[in-house]
Amino acid sequence: MSGGVAGGIAYEECTGDGERILNPFVHRLELETTYEKIKTAILTVVLLPIRVSVICFFVCVGWLFAFVGLWGLTEEELRQKPLDGWRNVVRRSCAVLMRSLFVTAGFRPTIIGRQSTRTQAPVVALAPHSSFADGVAMVYMGGPSIVAKGEIAALPFFGKLINFTQPVYVWRDDPDSRQNTIREIVERAKSDMDWPQILIFPEGTCTNRSCLITFKPGAFYPGVPIQPVCIRYPNKVDTVTWTWDGPSVWKLLWLTLTQPYSNCEIEFLPVYTPSDEEKKDPKLFAKNVRAVMAKALGVPVTDYCYDDCLMMAKAKQMNLPHAASLVEVNKLRLKLGMTGSKTEEALIEAKSPNDYTRGMDFPEFARTVGVPTDNWASRQLFRTFDKQNFGTIDFREYLLGVVGIEKDRTPLDVLRVACKIYDGSGFGRLSAEEFAKASCQTLALSREHALEVFEQVDKNRLGYVTYDSFVEYARRKAEFAGHFGFEEKPAARNGKKAD
Questions:
Q1: Helix spans in 105-212 (H)
Q2: Greatest pairwise CA separation for the chain in angstroms
Q3: What stretch of H or E contains 148?
Q4: Which residue among 181, 194, 303, 473 has its CA within the 20 to 30 Å range from the CA of 362?
Q5: Most confident of 23-27, 77-81, 168-172
Q6: Bridge partner residues of 111 (DSSP)
Q7: Tens digit of each residue's pLDDT (9 = 90 or more) over 292-325
Q8: CA distance linking residue 480 with residue 352, whole number of Å
């Protein structure tokens, strides 16, 4: 916390041997002091409109440059050969124009080291990737070709600008996209044609810069020299970090544009030439480059990856208890040798009525899940669910969180588990409050909506619902049928509408 603004990297310190589990996908940012709030309010009125107007001007002019530069080119031609002649001049001019955009936004880049040429390093690896603002490095490098998700091509204005760099697009929904992307990277990196350098964010997703997560090997398959580039934002207030759990992009843009200035350091490290062993093993190549960059940045490396982001997104979508911390829970369970043990599933199946409704302290927790009490990871696993430091946890939340993020669990599977966990009767009969708890923490329903659904399912006013009765109800409701993947029921049959 600095400058009256609460903003930070999320991690949990552990006692004992001093180890800790980082969560690189969480960022917190709040205005705390009256001074910061007043200053932001004043600059919102005085500075923000000016910056937005000038930025819009540069974006429009840049889009015009890109439109002219791409005039007459088909998408196929854009992928087959690099731009040359006057088109290449326009591309570089566009990059200079975009530099002005970042300067207008208040960014003050400091360049450390020297950028290599394409002959020296056909590929550039930039990390850590933490923000939309990382584009500042791209424009200061003259507009290299980036490897990016295909969806950005459809962005208004910016899609045209990105297309002008002749990017390599990754379509994550296409099962063949990964191989196609790797093939295109290899072809360009080893081509004799004068392609721009390929700029890749090897982490594959945004983090909070607390560590370097696993590098994807795509950029390292060509086995060519790579220039590592580190990017930092040494500011008192971190208004640029955009993670899976944190401020929205609009809040970040607002706070960034209302800062007097934002510092940014772009450090070009020496070109890394792979050994024969690294050329044969892209994962080893990626791991060693990451180690070099982590040392330059002064941060640790972790084995988090993009799949952890997907898991976290799934947990947030379902509104699982402590969703933002479940990536840490996965790592802690791995350290404790619990992965694949099915301990939690066995506890759920063996559960008796009201077994876990009371608070559970640490010794009982450790005994129940079978972990040592003198291990820092055990204590940290417990603390993850004891955010208020009460000394006890709701063990049902732990069970649901662990089981809910398993890859092979469907939404219906998770709901079934929640219904069993929160069933106080022991006979599969959930009261209104129990059903609300189960559905709020798996279907992300509000309590009010959940109680309304309960009333609709409990047509006979029995005072309870079952998992099966809810499923039968859900099959007839579009809001649930689509979520659970049920086949759509005909809207009317024999002249009667479906419920």
A1: 135-140, 158-163, 177-189
A2: 78
A3: strand 145-149
A4: 303
A5: 23-27
A6: 266
A7: 999 999 999 988 888 888 888 888 888 998 888 8
A8: 30
